[in-house]
Amino acid sequence: MIVLGIESATRTGGVALVSEKGVLAEYTLNIEVTHSERLMSTVDRVLCDTGISLADIAGIAVSSGPGSFTGLRIGIATAKGLAFATRKPVAAVPTLMALAWNAGGGEAVCPLLDAKKKEVYAAVYRIEEGTVATILPERVLSLADLARDLEGATVFTGEGAVLFRSEIRSLLGERARFAPLAAAVPSAASVAELGMQRILSGQLADPDGLAPVYIRRPEAEIAWEKRRQSR
After folding, report:
1. Cβ-based neighbours of 40, under 8 Å, separated by 6 or more
2. If you compute the radius of gyration of the chain from its CA atoms, what whole number of angstroms results?
3. What is the pLDDT of residues 200-220, one digit of tens each?
4. Helices (H), ranges, the chain
5. pLDDT digits (tens, 9 = 90+) for 135-156
């Protein structure tokens, strides 16, 4: 069984092929090039370099958010297009859950993404024996509010953990632990692996209704609503 994973929730985008035996290929780029410019070419490269065709894969997994509004739309549109073209099943994988999966198991893991406005996208998970348990669900909140909800030692990961390391340390002291930088980067392989679990268990997404999970409404939508109400 081979699953194609797509990660585009942040500037760090990637594509991977994962089988039940492990990662077959993964390409990750953290550069100032839009996902629309690189995503399909990266899919093509992963397939060509492994000698695997779209007909060979069992399904497609895509990072569903939260994250960059534009990046999520591009990744999900790509997954939907491939699903319609191949008639393969699709699994939507929460971005924060995939980040937690990178960090491994044992302790509580809190993936963080910068939500701007002095807030973060956050959740808390525990990875044990190849399964993910949600301790605190996905939210957008300040670091101070997050710290009040945490109990015991917590491993922080994701770009928000790197960006706000000093603030987290000042709030939690020695209770705050940090994943290695390599684990803090979004991974298409993690998306594919979690997507494989979902496909095998029948947790499939409807390609027609597949949409990003933003948590917070897009700024453009809020601004449009304000202009409409002021008329």
Report:
1. 78
2. 18
3. 999 999 999 999 999 976 555
4. 35-50, 69-86, 95-103, 143-149, 159-163, 165-172, 188-200, 219-230
5. 999 999 999 999 999 999 999 9
- Within 8 A by CB and 6+ apart from 62, the residues are 5, 6, 7, 8, 75, 76, 78, 79, 90, 91, 92, 93, 191, 195, 210
pLDDT level of residue 32 (50, 70, 90 thresholds): low
3-state secondary structure of 87: coil
> CA 141 to CA 118: how far, in whole Å?
8
Domains observed in the chain: 2-95+186-227 (3.30.420.40), 104-184 (3.30.420.40)
**Which is higher by pLDDT, 128 or 224?**
128
Give the whole-angstrom CA distance, residue 89 versus residue 212: 17
pTM for this prediction: 0.92
CB contact set of 23 (below 8 Å; sequence gap of 6+): 16, 17, 189, 192
Cβ neighbors of 105 (< 8 A, separation 6 or more) are 126, 127, 128, 129
Distance CA 93, CA 220 (A): 25
- pLDDT at site 66: 97
- b or e along 183-197 (b: 16 or more beta carbons within 10 Å of the residue's beta carbon)? bbbbbbbbbbbbbbb
Q: Which residue has the tokens 């997050």?
A: 146
